[in-house]
Amino acid sequence: GVAVVKMKNPPVNGLSLELLTELVISLEKLENDKTFRGIILTSDYPGVFSAGLDLTEMCGKSLAHYAEYWRAVQELWLRLYLSNLVLIAAINGVSPAGGCLLGLTCDYRILADNPKYTMGLNETRLGIIAPFWFKDTFVNTVGHRTAERALQLGLLLPPAEALQLGFVDQVVPEDQVQSAALSAMTQWLAIPDHARQLSKNMMRKPTADRLVKQRDADIQYFVSFISRDSIQKSLHTYLEKLKEKKH
Fold first, then answer.
1. What is the assigned CATH class of domain 2-245?
2. Is the distance from CB of 234 to CB of 60 less than 8 angstroms?
3. Any catalytic annotation for residue 85?
4. Which site among 36, 45, 92, 233 is 20 to 30 Å from 175 CA-CA?
5. What is the rounded radius of gyration, in angstroms, for the C-alpha atoms of the chain?
6. Active-site hit among 85, 122, 151, 155
7. Is 163 a catalytic residue?
8. φ/ψ of residue 210, rounded to 5
9. In the annotation, is 143 catalytic?
10. Among 73, 67, 130, 141, which residue's Cα sits nearest to residue 97?
């Protein structure tokens, strides 16, 4: 009753419009197929869980495209955050920004013990900010003060610190991430689904409802923010730097 969903969008599992859409479709299929009770979310590329939102979707495109993209990001978050299935993140690589958010939406997070595999919402380092519902998810996970400091400083933490501050629930040797995820899943699936789902919903629905009520306003805000000249310039500069690194 457990599905393993592996992200595969080379080179860094950027959350492109296509990947967001594919993930939502996969989730819907698994939710509707009553043989499945849990999902292990992981990456097909050890070393990178997901580098987060795909900046090329937010740079030099039309306003309509930005709106469509942001609606897809919201949709994936809502689906993951409120899923009736048990979601366990098997984080086998770096997970900044949107990659960290994917982990935070899960019920339980396991991170591979490699000092290179940092995790955090580092939006401020790019001159942008994490949306309120990223922030809410983070606060719900690590508490207000830790979230406040981490968000302002755009902290990306290595495994030991990520565990200490509650970004993740478990840090295990790299070759044991998958088996640790399976044994954690056994523990979660030992609870009657109905009771667990109602408890999850009780904890999470108020947070999700905040976005549901403000979805259109949130999209408009994103579009107006991302289309500013100054933001477009800094995204463009950042993408150019990434290109140089590759070469």
1. alpha beta
2. no
3. no
4. 36
5. 17
6. 122
7. no
8. -60, -40
9. no
10. 130
For the chain, the domains span 2-245
Q: How many CB atoms lie within 10 A of CB 147?
A: 22
SS3 178: helix
pTM over 0.90: yes
53 catalytic? Reply is yes
- Buried b / exposed e across 214-241, counting CB within 10 Å, b at 16+? eeeebbeebbeebeeeebeeebeebeee
- For residue 112, the one-letter residue type is A
Q: Each residue of 30-60: pLDDT tens digit?
A: 999 999 999 999 999 999 999 999 999 999 9
**Sign (positive/negative) of CA torsion 67, 70, 74, 80?**
positive
The one-character DSSP state at 119 is E
* Cis amide prior to 131 (ω within 30 degrees): no
Contact 44, 7 (CB under 8 A): yes
Collect all residues with Cβ–Cβ distance below 8 Å to 76 and sequence separation of at least 6: 15, 20, 23, 24, 27
